[in-house]
Amino acid sequence: HFVASYDRSTGQTKYYLDGDLKNTTSPGYGTGDNLVIGALGQDASSDNWYGWIDDVAIYDGPMGTDQIDFLAGGGDPNPIPEPATTALLILGGVGALLRRRRK
C-alpha cells in the first residue's frame, strides 16, 4: 500500500508505505503539472511501471496519518451501504411519514 500526499500550503510531498512515513520531499513541481500514474518523474515515456495498479484515489486535500493508517489497514474511504440497509432506511422513513399524517 503506497500513498503520496502533497500539501500545497507547505510544498511538501510525504510518501507512505503500508501506513509508515518513509520520506518527505519538496519536489518543486506545481499543481498545474500533469499527473502520470505509474511513471517515475515528469517524463511519462520512461521509467514506467509494468504491472497492475489497483485502487487509485485522488483527494482534494492532504491526508493525515490517521486517514493513511485507516486506508493501509484495508478501510474503505467511501463505504457504499448494502441494498438491504438502504431499503430499510427508505421504508422506515415512509412509515414515519405515514404515521405522522394519521395523527
TrEMBL record:
Entry-linked InterPro entries: ConA-like_dom_sf, Ice-binding_C
Transmembrane segments: none
Protein name in UniProt: Ice-binding protein C-terminal domain-containing protein
Sequence ranges assigned to domain Ice-binding protein C-terminal in this UniProt record: 79-101
